[in-house]
Write a structure and sequence with these properties.
Blueprint (H helix, E strand, L loop, with lengths): L1 H27 L6 H13 L3 H34 L8 H31 L3 H18 L8
Length: 152
């Protein structure tokens, strides 16, 4: 009987420990956090944006995300078309090149839209904030860049 109580207590302790760990990860860890929000929060804090600037920035972010999403959807279709050529018995190099040019063009459009987004953000800053913007933008862009896997 004593052994059953000890096992039950240990099981209960482990269950509570798991619940606490999951709660901590969910609320305070990087679990379920969009990296784009992290960059936005970083810029708002570093630039010390006021309420009006934050509202403008939120509109800029929404517009940027919508534009990039549309471009990515088109890009996905071109990627599918490009790799569907693997199924062909004879490769059509003209179609491959046109499709690859389209993919390259769309990636360029993402870069242009992103540049304009940050340019517009800089324009809503006052002179003091523009100086700070110029010093923190590279760090923000590094945060947004895809993470490279570690070298083996």
């Amino acid at each position: 009987m004593n052994r059953k109580k000890l096992c039950f207590a240990a099981l209960l302790f482990l269950l509570l420990l798991n619940i606490v760990c999951l709660f901590y990860l969910w609320n305070y860890g990087n679990f379920n956090k969009d990296p784009r929000n992290k960059i936005g929060d970083y810029l708002v804090k570093e630039l010390d944006l006021n309420e009006h600037q934050i509202a403008s920035f939120e509109l800029l972010k929404k517009d940027h995300q919508e534009q990039v999403q549309l471009i990515k959807e088109k890009n996905r279709l071109f990627h599918d078309q490009y790799f569907d050529q693997l199924k062909s018995k004879a490769l059509d190099s003209t179609l491959l090149n046109v499709t690859l040019d389209s993919i390259t063009y769309l990636q360029r459009q993402i870069e242009i839209v992103t540049f304009k987004h940050f340019y517009q953000l800089r324009m809503i800053c006052d002179d003091r904030q523009k100086i700070k913007f110029d010093s923190v933008i590279q760090e923000a862009l590094r945060m947004f860049a895809p993470q490279r896997p570690p070298k083996h």
